[in-house]
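assembly run, all chains below
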Amino acid sequence: MEKIEIAHGSGGKLTRELIENLFLKYLDFEELKSLQDASYLKLSSPNIAMTTDSYVVKPFKFPGGNTGKLSVCGTINDLTVSGAIPKYLSLGLIIEEGFSLKELEDIISTIAKTAKEAGIVIATGDTKVVESGKCDGIYINTAGIGEIKKELSPKFVKPGDVVIVTGYIGDHGIAISLAREEFDMEIPVKSDCAPLNTLLTPLFDISGLKWMRDPTRGGVATVTVELSEMSGYGIKLFEDKIPVREEVKFVCDMLGYDPLYLANEGKALIVVDRKDAESTLNILKEHPLGKDSAIIGEVTDSFKGVRLKTRIGGERLLDLLEDDPLPRIC
Amino acid sequence: MEKIEIAHGSGGKLTRELIENLFLKYLDFEELKSLQDASYLKLSSPNIAMTTDSYVVKPFKFPGGNTGKLSVCGTINDLTVSGAIPKYLSLGLIIEEGFSLKELEDIISTIAKTAKEAGIVIATGDTKVVESGKCDGIYINTAGIGEIKKELSPKFVKPGDVVIVTGYIGDHGIAISLAREEFDMEIPVKSDCAPLNTLLTPLFDISGLKWMRDPTRGGVATVTVELSEMSGYGIKLFEDKIPVREEVKFVCDMLGYDPLYLANEGKALIVVDRKDAESTLNILKEHPLGKDSAIIGEVTDSFKGVRLKTRIGGERLLDLLEDDPLPRIC
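ok done. output:
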């Protein structure tokens, strides 16, 4: 049997076979293997962060990852930028009838590998199967819980604080765009999809760390606009400081995209007190995922909203994304 | 604008409007309203239970509920039968482009109402929109966490223990079957979809409480077969003791279904020490959701597997569900 059948989602014999022969081959947490309705977990503190995301990226396989890797990294990153140490993830699969078992195995093994490398546990799971034409291969939901170590909030952000990005932006959006094969371009851009916990959790010790966010849907522009609204202050961004790969610029020029609105899956925006900017950058640059970190902006009380100081000396107002040129990028 | 558009899932302006104008109108948890990547939560203990389920029921609206109610009840019930007090739920929505905003509002308001009545909090959420034909209206994932109050496990189950069901079985499966309108029958069967925490958590004080499970996919038969495998003992069920409504029997006869394999969404199977059977029944019967509770079987070491003592005096061996006659019932 090489394809998923409706009966794999019935809760009966085939469901059990799928779980035992495929899922538990890679996911080996004892509580998960007990196949009870819920898993018993131990935390070191009752103060937790919780998040959830569904991943419907199209195509489900792309240079630099697949929806499995994305679903683990995305939820790890949401917890981490909230000041928490990610501990446990749930995994909810919705699979289309006829989906290849080989592809499913690739996805599950990637999930297991990514989780292991990031030091988190897939604690509980669920699988549903829907008829052909009622899904797009596979949709994955992960919810995650982590232990809060550092409270972060837009309300801590103050004028004078600096805005840091942890590396090149727009890679994920462009990788997905190219993977759709709607354009006949052979340009080697890989998604930046990565778990950011080992990069960012060392920053929790920095007293001037105010706020972090991973700029996924809507990109750097949308996230800074939201920060501006929630903090009540203006954000000034410097175009010439924002790291964008030449290949990404090239594709953006060709297709009329703006890198500032493209999704990232392995980058964080960070606001720190100016006095801690240097030490923050030093910590980030020591890590492979943060070596291209840069200060790209600052918080100001001289205006509201987000203004981009362009290379040619002008200023551009940034707003929330209106209509994504690339839906289903995560 | 009366229908969901792709841009509602872009993470930009329309996403924000949807969240603020619709979701936050009903879901009013402060941390959720802060629109951060994760919510900060306080538990009273670091020993937690975690579970997840995706809900893809077809049709998404049926007598007795909708997928929203199901998604809250199902996850509450998974935590409760694990011996935990359900506290926080995450909510992940995958919505099909073109889905009615009115239907979405019905679903969200039902989620809010069900959560409130059950005393749990929708703590964090995510919304994705997929193209028309890549979903079946709406799919919902909920993950839940609860505080462990009573450790339950099939390994505590011993010969002589009794098996209790908390009421009539098969209602949900039949309600879904009839709601599909493939059969021209006007029979008033409503789904039993209900949150079981207020019914079952009072049982946590009973020392002889061993194990609980809500017999959803695969029904009472599949769940007891799994209990038998995991405990290592046989389960004897008495057909004449199992509560099945006349209407459910009638539809089963017409369509060739077996009530023992039909899904339930508001029932629990409970194994208790025989000495505590009476007190357990008394507690259950005091609650509207448990008034038809009955002892339907017992655990034995005289055989393995599950045997049903039939009305006419014979015995039938029960096995895991092979192929669900009714896929996507939850």
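The longest helix of chain A spans residues 101-118.

The mean pLDDT of chain A is 96.

not gonna interpret more than that til we talk
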